[in-house]
Amino acid sequence: MAQELLTASGAANEGADDYNPAVNFLLDGIDRDAKAPTARVARVLLGHHLQCAQCHDSEAQGWKQQQFWALNAALRQLRASRQDGHARLVPSEPGVLGSAAVAYQTPEGITKTTGPRFIDGTEISATDGVDPRQQLAELIVESNDFAKAAVNRVWAQLFDYGFARPVDDFGPQSTIVAPAVLDRLATEFAAHDFDLRRVIRWAVLSEPFRRSSQVTDLASKDMPEEGELALFSRFYNRPAQGPRVLGALVEAGRIRAKGGSRSEVEQARVDWLMQANRAPTKGSKKADTAVMVGSADLQHKSVSGDPTGLVKKLAASEMPLEKRIEHLFLAALARQPSQREQQAALQLVRTGGNPATALEDLWWALQNSSECVLDR
Prior knowledge:
It contains 17 helices and 7 strands. The protein is mainly alpha-helical. It has 3 domains: 2-142, no CATH class; 144-236, no CATH class; 242-375, serine acetyltransferase, domain 1, CATH 1.10.3130. It has a 3-stranded antiparallel beta sheet. It starts with a helix and ends with a strand.
């Protein structure tokens, strides 16, 4: 994936013959200097804030100005082109790709030049007609920094905090939690052909992932919610992100399969996320407000309308009532109902008159619970 992002070419818009969404990684913010894509490559793929060295050597980060512009030289000869209403990533001057050096000015006013080089000083081929991005991609993926940055991002997605904080900063001023663990994971990740599924499996089978979210030892100082380092002595509660809640509602209700144009589905997504990300009013909880207000229409669709939707299918199912209730808990909360919850849900469904309506009420209640938007 990293190599595809770094070497992509073509159009960023659907409908073009050469449509390739991977170009957006470098196309976003690109100009004649390509400074934004250069900083993004270093930060996202290597975990280094190289942008600090654009204008001068960065003592805090330990980077030289020459390192930034040498990496920039491998991307500098790209530009954005608009033809037929489509944005494309193309060479700035066809026929001279890879042949030009980059000039930059030091704080003392001295003009220097450099050809494409990786941040460790490895020279990148700059012959006429050769795209230096190919060799740059190979050097990035082969570096230890790439494996660490990738593992750290996966770990942060699962735990909400990575080994480094911020998640994309492995600079000399950053404190790495459990560096031996990170090194081992990165080494195994590279040794297993960068298999993300293995990294996820290692993380979810780890002891920290299985720990309770309850704070039992205040003396441990493991309070990353307060800005401290994450020591992973417990599992950290966190609100689910808007796009994930939306995706769960859409899939559970099979809203995508109900018809309607692609633009209508996309507009519904945008409208919902705008409400989910809206700042809460005084005295309200943002997560609860987002689910109850922002997703009301989607929740309604997930329990009514399409007979292939989750609740409609369960209502028509011949499986035991206990299993249908269990299915709703798994879909909404990713866990089995407790004995008390199971008894309360059974009573609701059995005494609610129409079982289908009772199941809809149960689904609505689960979707509006605090636990539904809390990643435990």
